[in-house]
Amino acid sequence: CVMAPSTVAGCLKAHIITVMSANDGAVIKALGADAASEIIETESLCFNCHKTGVTRLLLTRIPNFREVIVASFSCPHCGFENRTVDPAGTVKDKGNLFVLDVRSKRDLNRRILHPDHSEIRIPSLDSSFPISTGSVTTVEGAITHIINNLNELQPERKVADPKQAELIDEFIEKLKKLLTVETHFTLELDDPSGNGYIENLRAPLNDPQLKYTQYVRTPEQNEKLGYQAEEQTEPVQEDASNLKDTVSVFQVQCPNCHSNCPTNMKIVGMFFSVILFFCILSEFPLLPLWINK
Fold first, then answer.
1. Keyword Transmembrane on this protein (predicted)?
2. Where do the CATH 2.60.120.1040 domains begin and end in the chain?
3. Closest by Cα among 90, 84, 64, 83 to 194
4. What CA–CA distances, in Å, run from 141 to 144, 195, 256?
5. How far is it, in rounded angstroms, from Cα 10 to Cα 290?
6. pLDDT of 166-184, one tens digit each?
7. Superfamily of domain 94-224, CATH level 4
């Protein structure tokens, strides 16, 4: 039986999480010189030519972060290759947001892990880039990947919509200018799964250029991660026009004997105004109270 690469990685990930839970996380070792001996190979289906390729899986730990599964697929028949990185643990209770102040080319070499369904934002360009495939790269690599994706269909755009292609070319030049770090810019990594990561160059100390916060996911984000969103029950609001035909009853304290008694209230429309009609029912009946509204 030949499975798809994503299926192989998913099955192995579920098995690893179970074993880690039973062994207090001792299954995955840090990446070392003997890492090649820990690579797992299995046959899997090539999505490009539908023949049999090879998927290689490596379980490792990112220093000062957490465990990940690095998957690499290659097909000897058509040459198709694909690489992904998935967290080896479960989805966290909260999402995380990293905000990096890029000040020098050294910051471009910071490692960054952006899982599936995460998003990279560059506020200075008023732009955001959803991530469909998780990977481990650098800040420079992430921006370069965005540039390559935008360039991929530019020849077709220049034929179909020259104006749009021209705007995209201008935007690509702005992205390339960021890589020169002539001016500081901010890069944000928003990951609802809580498994995203931007390298802290001063770990284990705090990095003044890197801010990290956690947040509660929205129902829409839970749905994207495969969680069933809780049903939102909105309070029922009664139409004010229907109140004119109903009598509301509630408990109040009798002003005469100070005991609890029911009070009837009804909105009555008159030709000159709208009034509230109160009637307090107790052992000592009182006259109805008319309040002009």
1. yes
2. 94-224
3. 90
4. 5, 19, 80
5. 71
6. 999 999 999 999 999 999 9
7. ZPR1, A/B domain (2.60.120.1040)
195 pLDDT band (50/70/90 cuts)? confident
According to DSSP, the β-strands at 119-122 and 289-292 are unpaired
Q: Indicate the class that CATH gives domain 35-89.
A: mainly beta
The pTM of this model reads: 0.58
Q: Tell me which DSSP letter residue 177 carries.
A: H
Q: Where in the chain is the domain with CATH 2.20.25.420?
A: 35-89
**Is 193's pLDDT higher than 80?**
yes
CA–CA gap between residue 148 and residue 141 (Å, rounded): 10
Q: Could you count the other beta carbons within 10 Å of the beta carbon of residue 220?
A: 9
Q: Residue 24 — very low, low, confident or very high, per pLDDT cuts 50/70/90?
A: very low
* Nearest alpha carbon to residue 71 among 89, 61, 86: 86
Q: How deeply is 114 buried, as exposed, middle or buried, from its count of CB atoms within 10 A (0-12, 13-18, 19+)? A: buried
Q: Please, which residues have CB within 8 angstroms of residue 124's CB and are 6 or more apart in sequence?
A: 185, 186
pLDDT tens profile 237-283: 555 555 566 777 767 666 666 566 777 776 666 544 444 555 555 44
- Its sign, for the CA torsion 126, 132, 138, 143, is negative
Beta-ladder partners of 82: 73
Question: How many other C-beta atoms can be found within 10 angstroms of the C-beta atom of residue 110?
Answer: 21
Distance separating alpha carbons of residues 186 and 190, to the nearest angstrom = 13
